[in-house]
Amino acid sequence: MIGSGTTLCRATSACLELGARRVTVGATHGLFQEGAPKLFAQPGIDRIVVTDTVAIDRLPIAEEHRARITTIEAAPLLADCLRAMHL
Questions:
Q1: Structure-derived torsion over alpha carbons of residues 55, 75, 72, 29, reported in degrees to the nearest 10
Q2: What is the average pLDDT value for the chain, to the nearest integer?
Q3: How far is CA 50 from CA 1, 26, 56, 63, in A?
Q4: Residue 63: pLDDT band by 50, 70, 90 thresholds?
Q5: What is the 3-state secondary structure of the chain?
Q6: Which H, E and C letters describe 17-37, residue by residue?
Q7: Per-domain residue ranges for the chain?
Q8: Strands of 23-27's sheet, edge to edge?
Q9: Mean pLDDT score, 58-76
Q10: 58: pLDDT confidence band, cut at 50, 70 and 90?
């Protein structure tokens, strides 16, 4: 879950210090609460992938930041997991 993004910023900094050139962030829920703009300003984050469990279009995210967010559907992923557990 991405709240304000503080933990992801720290994790990205650590990855970059260890030699990563870029980081792709992934989370189930992208809440992008107060403080999240620093996440979009964080150097090294290439893109942010979240599921559609939270309606991104209803969140106060600047248009230039939305371009870095990839949203994937959660329902097919959950269906595949449930199928795999019960077959």
A1: 50
A2: 92
A3: 9, 6, 9, 17
A4: confident
A5: CECCCHHHHHHHHHHHHCCCCCEEEEECCECCCCCCHHHHHCCCEEEEEEECCCCHHHCCCCHHHHCCEEEECHHHHHHHHHHHHHC
A6: HCCCCCEEEEECCECCCCCCH
A7: 6-86
A8: 23-27, 45-51, 69-72
A9: 91
A10: confident
